[in-house]
């Protein structure tokens, strides 16, 4: 049975996304757009696509403009979208559904793919009733998160609603969109108003919890969602998603046991929900229960992927990656490689798995050439994104020569690949060639260096080669980049002149208002191994010196970082994170009493911090083991004391499984424990 199709959109200042939405549905029989007060070009854009535009004053109720659109419908079927959504396959798939619908079918769910980030796996999938018959009895309900489903269910029951494979991409949850549109604040105000009218409505409580979560108020979000959970029964359609979101928040708050208990109870109701099994795996893994975590990840991989609201990859590449990571921690490298490969079979550009398998091969002493060949065979790159994923994996193990050999010259106009290629050039000492390519890009594009740090790399190259920025770069800079780079340049030139003349010309407060940009430069220089340059940029600025010390530690320059961290302690300029790193250094050297004192400072002076709490506990366990062994002497390994010592050692092994300590991999691990005589070595020269 065929029928005509109307697309419905409500809008207010949606010009940034509206044309993309309408382009995807332009072949519909009718487009109806209800405007609630736009001051931008939304109305003219809608009319340019032939939409019938109607006006409805905004009354803090999304159902009203939705129902206003229904009032003007002249077709047999309706599909409603948000202005920041796109129908991925156009309306042809909707027409197919309409043509095959029997009289008993009143509506279809579509698969909504919420884009959360740049990665292909950064997607949240859920189903929503979006296509339905234009029945006068169907009405939207709810002040916010409006729904057509209740009126369809009331008149025809659940059997009248069918699932489809038609996909809608939704961009409204991207952080930039949320901030630009002020959606979080708007939604919070509407939900508070709705709860004033219905204080025990679990759907509104749940969604207000989501809004609080988006604004970083996790404790408040947890409390609201817990209330909502207590007011719902397992049959409620959104309850499984509520459990997922609540358990994720509890985990984020570090309440690992509480998350485990919640999930254990709720998995009885939703035993085939991959996301719940996956979050259970995370909770168990962070508690050091690796064997149980493995089983939870296995269950996630074995669960269906489209029954519930789910994060893309939660029943495929993600659990296989986590199983691989656990196998690697257990020293089972071949098994880890197998799991990482299974993850890549399901998502060939899943970067964590790609980097994981490269790291394992590196630890197994596979040559860089063989690893590179595998990576490019595995990814079969055709796009810049695929080449970038391959280059990132190779960069993590320091395979810079292989990056230079494998990236095609024809694609180096792409900023993301130029960045990877130039980084490899700098790391292999070819700074002059890197500078030539980077400046060529800046000049050709008359830009501020483009994305992915191209400008940063160009500036670093010129400081390394010439000691100051050259006109080839300075003449292309625009504000605010011009202000940032000229200020850093003045500092470096002044310091070089002072070194030559012996006369200090220290610039007071060298980086007012540009600290974040300077800190990013310091991290980049340290990541490139150009420590002398990083020293010069940071020197004399307390916040920059702190960033330098922590960056050196995270990049594996542990011995060099130690002196700087100690110096910052003496100056009372070390923050909690830096204090934890210094405690790790002392712990690794076996100075357990001193390390425990620092860990406890982090925990007690400020707020409870899980890694430092674990670090302190481990220090005392090691001290207990040492004391018991010293007191008992040769009898320490005899019963009953042997059992006591073994229990202490078992606790040490278990706590070491919780991921409390900084871990280095690839080229960073190669920097760990650099010999002391290398500390004063200057940056490499060509």
Explain how this protein is built.
Helix 1 (18-23) links the parallel strand 1 and strand 2. Helices cover 57% and strands 8% of the residues. It is an alpha/beta fold and 686 residues long. Among the domains are: 5-176, Alpha-Beta Complex (Spore Coat Polysaccharide Biosynthesis Protein SpsA, Chain A); 515-678, Alpha Horseshoe (Serine Threonine Protein Phosphatase 5, Tetratricopeptide repeat). It starts with a strand and ends in a 15-residue tail after the last helix. The radius of gyration is 29 Å and the shape is globular.
**Helix fraction bin:** 55-70%
What are the segments in which pLDDT stays under 50 over at least 5 consecutive residues? 675-686
* Tally of strands: 9
Oligomer: single chain
Total of DSSP H or I helical runs spanning 4+ residues? 33
CATH class bucket of the domain at 5-176: Alpha Beta
Largest sheet: 9 strands, mixed
- Shape descriptor reads globular
Output the radius of gyration. Answer: 29 Å
CATH superfamily of the domain at 5-176: Spore Coat Polysaccharide Biosynthesis Protein SpsA, Chain A
- The N- to C-terminal Cα distance equals 74 Å
Structural class: alpha/beta
- Percent of residues in beta strands: 5-15%
Second rung of CATH, namely the architecture of the domain at 5-176 = Alpha-Beta Complex
* Whole-number mean pLDDT: 91
Task: Detail the topology: elements first, then pairings.
Blueprint: E1 5-11, H1 18-23, E2 30-35, H2 42-48, E3 52-55, H3 63-71, E4 77-82, E5 85-87, H4 92-100, E6 107-115, E7 123-133, H5 149-156, E8 161-170, H6 175-181, H7 183-197, H8 202-214, H9 218-230, H10 239-252, H11 256-266, H12 274-286, H13 290-301, E9 310-311, H14 317-329, H15 333-346, H16 351-363, H17 368-379, H18 384-396, H19 400-406, H20 415-427, H21 431-445, H22 454-466, H23 471-474, H24 481-501, H25 515-527, H26 531-538, H27 542-554, H28 558-570, H29 576-588, H30 592-605, H31 610-632, H32 641-655, H33 666-671
Parallel strand pairs: 1-2, 1-4, 2-3, 6-8
Antiparallel strand pairs: 4-7, 5-8, 6-7, 7-9
Helix pairs in contact: 7-8, 8-9, 9-10, 10-11, 10-12, 11-12, 12-13, 13-14, 14-15, 14-16, 15-16, 16-18, 17-18, 18-20, 19-20, 20-21, 21-22, 25-26, 25-27, 26-27, 27-28, 28-29, 29-30, 29-31, 30-31, 31-32
């Amino acid at each position: 049975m065929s029928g005509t199709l109307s697309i419905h959109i409500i809008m207010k200042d949606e010009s940034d996304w509206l044309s993309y939405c309408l382009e995807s549905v332009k072949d519909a029989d009718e487009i109806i757009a209800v405007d609630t007060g736009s001051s931008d070009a939304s109305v003219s854009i809608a009319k340019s696509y032939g939409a019938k535009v109607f006006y409805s004053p905004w009354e803090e109720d999304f159902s009203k403009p939705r129902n206003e659109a229904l009032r003007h419908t002249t077709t047999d079927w309706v599909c409603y979208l948000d202005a920041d959504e796109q129908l991925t396959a156009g309306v042809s798939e909707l027409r197919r559904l309409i043509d095959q619908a029997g009289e008993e079918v009143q509506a279809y769910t579509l698969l909504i793919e919420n884009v959360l980030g740049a990665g292909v796996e950064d997607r949240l999938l859920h189903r929503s009733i979006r296509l339905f018959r234009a029945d006068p009895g169907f009405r939207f309900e709810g002040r916010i998160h409006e729904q057509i489903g209740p009126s369809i269910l009331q008149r025809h029951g659940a059997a009248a609603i069918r699932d489809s494979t038609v996909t809608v991409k939704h961009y409204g949850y991207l952080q930039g969109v949320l901030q630009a549109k002020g959606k979080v604040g708007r939604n919070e105000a509407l939900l508070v108003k709705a709860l004033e009218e219905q204080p025990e409505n679990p759907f509104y409580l749940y969604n207000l919890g989501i809004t609080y979560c988006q604004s970083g108020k996790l404790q408040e979000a947890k409390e609201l969602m817990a209330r909502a959970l207590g007011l719902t029964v397992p049959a409620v359609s959104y309850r499984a998603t509520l459990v997922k979101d609540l358990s994720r928040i509890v985990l984020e708050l570090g309440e690992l046991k509480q998350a485990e208990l919640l999930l254990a109870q709720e998995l009885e109701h939703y035993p085939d929900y991959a996301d719940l099994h996956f979050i259970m795996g995370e909770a168990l893994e962070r508690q050091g229960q690796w064997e149980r975590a493995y089983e939870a990840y296995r269950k996630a991989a074995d669960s269906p992927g489209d029954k519930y609201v789910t994060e893309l990859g939660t029943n495929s590449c993600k659990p296989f990656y986590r199983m691989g990571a656990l196998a690697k921690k257990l020293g089972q490298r071949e098994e880890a490689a197998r799991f990482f490969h299974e993850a890549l079979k399901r998502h060939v550009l899943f970067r964590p798995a790609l980097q994981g398998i490269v790291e394992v091969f590196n630890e197994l002493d596979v040559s860089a050439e063989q690893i590179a060949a595998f990576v490019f065979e595995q990814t079969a790159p055709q796009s810049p994104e695929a080449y970038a994923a391959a280059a990132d994996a190779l960069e993590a193990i320091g395979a810079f020569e292989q990056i230079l050999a494998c990236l095609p010259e024809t694609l180096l106009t792409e900023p993301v690949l130029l960045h990877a290629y130039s980084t490899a050039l700098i790391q292999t000492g070819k700074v002059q060639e890197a500078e030539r390519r980077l400046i060529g890009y800046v000049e050709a594009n008359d830009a501020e260096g483009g994305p992915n740090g191209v400008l940063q790399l160009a500036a670093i190259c010129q400081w390394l080669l010439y000691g100051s920025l050259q006109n080839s770069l300075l003449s292309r800079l625009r504000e605010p980049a011009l202000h940032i780079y000229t200020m850093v340049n003045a500092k470096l030139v002044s310091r070089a002149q002072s070194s030559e003349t012996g006369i200090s010309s220290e610039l007071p407060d060298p980086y007012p208002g540009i600290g974040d940009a300077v800190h990013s430069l310091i991290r980049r220089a340290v990541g490139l191994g150009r420590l002398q340059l990083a020293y010069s940029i940071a020197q004399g600025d307390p916040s920059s010196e702190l960033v330098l010390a922590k960056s050196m530690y995270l990049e594996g320059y542990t011995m060099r970082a130690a002196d700087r961290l100690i110096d910052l302690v003496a100056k009372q300029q070390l923050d909690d994170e830096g204090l934890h790193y210094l405690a790790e250094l002392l712990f690794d050297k076996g100075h357990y009493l001193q390390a425990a004192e620092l860990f406890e400072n982090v925990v007690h002076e400020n707020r409870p911090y899980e890694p430092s709490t674990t670090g302190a506990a481990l220090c005392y366990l090691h001290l207990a083991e040492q004391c018991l062994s010293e007191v008992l002497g040769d009898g320490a390994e005899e019963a009953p004391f042997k059992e006591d010592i073994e229990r202490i050692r078992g606790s040490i092994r278990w706590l070491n499984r919780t991921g409390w300590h900084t871990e280095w991999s690839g080229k960073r691990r190669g920097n760990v424990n650099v010999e002391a005589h290398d500390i004063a070595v200057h940056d490499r020269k060509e």
